[in-house]
Amino acid sequence: MGEALHSGPIEHLSNKMEKPLLDDRLYRVMELPNHLKVLLIHDPDNDKTAAAMDVNVGSFSDPDDVPGTAHAVEHFCFMGTKKYPGENEYSTYLTKYGGNSNAYTASTSTDYYSELSASSTSNSPGSSATVKQFNVSISKGKAPLYGALDCFS
């Protein structure tokens, strides 16, 4: 299995953000132990709980001799995680509780998102942690993508 990606506390950076006067949402900026900065938004009138992540690596970062690497990694992230080790197990969990997930690779970034309906978050075990969880810690021997890539090596 992969190693933990972080250790240590989450640092709270700010609750204050410049926003329009009519915006009644609450904002919080935090930094994770792996130095990833996170913006949390609480909207009591929204019917969904969601998480999104933009990674500053896209198809322009692909090595010349291995085009499609960023897109392959995008798909790899849905092939199993430490918490949901089976292929598409994370997506199956979200679907069971009225949610979904997706991602796309652009030229300079790759974006991932997942969401659940707010009504399902009280019924699904660990739902808010589930939407936030997108750990790519996976066993190399069990990852279907590794098998596919081995065909080309």
Automatic annotation (TrEMBL):
Listed InterPro entries: Metalloenz_LuxS/M16 (IPR011249), Pept_M16_N (IPR011765), Peptidase_M16 (IPR050626)
GO biological process: peptide catabolic process; proteolysis involved in protein catabolic process
Presence of keyword rRNA-binding: no
GO MF, any single term: metalloendopeptidase activity
Keywords: Hydrolase, Metal-binding, Metalloprotease, Protease, Zinc
Domain of life: Eukaryota
Domain Peptidase M16 N-terminal: 37-118
Statement: the UniProt record of this protein carries the keyword Metal-binding: yes
Gene Ontology cellular component terms for the protein in this record: cytosol; mitochondrion
Similarity remark: Belongs to the peptidase M16 family.
Record-given protein name: Peptidase M16 N-terminal domain-containing protein
Organism placement in taxonomy: Eukaryota, Fungi, Dikarya, Ascomycota, Pezizomycotina
